[in-house]
Amino acid sequence: MIDITKTAVVSVRQVLEPAFSDEPIKPPTYPDDDGVGKYVIYDNNGVKDVVLDTHQSQANRVEPGFNNSGLIPDSTVKVREETKNLTEVGHRLADAVVRFSNQAPIVEAALLAFTKGDAVPVAKLAPTSLLFGLWDSRKTHTKITRIFSSEIRAHNIVEVPHSGQFVSSVPRLENQVTKDLSSEGMLDCPYSGLGGVIVKGEITRTVRLNVRGIRKFKTKELRDYVLGLGLFALTYPVNLDLREGCNLVATKTTVSAFNEDGTRSEIALTHADAVEFATKAAKAFGVGEALEFIFDTNVANISAAGKAEAKEATAQAKKSGKPKATEAVA
């Protein structure tokens, strides 16, 4: 389907539109240094562009699409009485609910094997970690660079202000301070803030699969397996109802191959094609066994308490000017 010896990147480019082009749509907000929400807006050749969906958010929308596909282990995570799919966990194998679970030794061994060049254990445990990446910054220090990325941006936008007025349904109470009335929702309150953006240019969703990253895996079976998962993700019909006030539809989709010789070409690739290839590759590789990761609250609390104590000891040592005592290694 894709010759990974000649292809550098496979990309999908979608042109998106809201239902009405002259109505504002709502980008995501992120807190600034003062905790006030703002959009990610930047200058692009003299006009303003805005981020409508980040790499991380897009990964969270695509990854659950692998559930019950037969392409990955349908592993679950249990925290107290709640059970969810492993694909719903934010940091994948590096997430705290996994690191402090009954399967922690297996996870640690897989991550350490990856650092030594063997990606098979990770592929058997949680293969989407090879697609969307992870960073275990706390124990094994394993970093898996994402080979799948996707984002949505809007070009040439105009910011729309928003103002409003809340009118309390009860009369102002006597002998009450303003702060107390406000906290109970019994105070008239004006409001001004973000009202979305109107897009004058194009809204584009750009999806990339780094085939060079796939070439680094050692066996053909693993390379084909990850390629199949990548093509599945690349063509997955992601939900474009991004948030309240930002519901988009795709009006044009182009799939392109960027080759090592510098040439680019459009290719015919449907999601059905990707599923067929991925299914054959998964069968040849051998999908790993589904596991239940049961979060151990006691182990997590002990670890957190130990780190808090170590942090306090370091702070006290700095205050006293004495070097921190080192623990003996057994």
Describe this structure as you would to a colleague:
The structure is a single chain. With 330 residues, this protein is α+β, with helices and mostly antiparallel strands. The chain folds into two domains: 7-155 and 200-300, no CATH class; 161-195, no CATH class. The protein has ten helices and 17 strands. The strands form five sheets. Strands 1, 4, 5, 10, 13, 14, 15 and 16 form an eight-stranded antiparallel β-sheet that branches. A three-stranded mixed β-sheet has the order 7-6-17, with no helix packed on it. A hairpin with a 2-residue loop joins strand 4 and strand 5. Helix 8 (220-235) packs antiparallel against helix 9. The radius of gyration is 25 Å and the shape is globular.
Q: Spell out the helices and strands N to C.
A: EEEEEHEEHHHHEEEEHEEHHEEEHEH
Share of residues in helices: 25-40%
Percent of residues in β-strands: 25-35%
Can you tell me the number of structural domains? Answer: 2
Structural class: alpha+beta
Low-confidence parts: none
Q: Give the termini separation.
A: 54 Å
Radius of gyration computed on alpha carbons: 25 Å
Main sheet attributes: strand count, strand direction, barrel closure: 8 strands, antiparallel
Shape: globular
Strands, count: 17
Mean pLDDT over the full residue set: 88
- By DSSP (H or I, 4+ residues per run), the number of helices equals 10
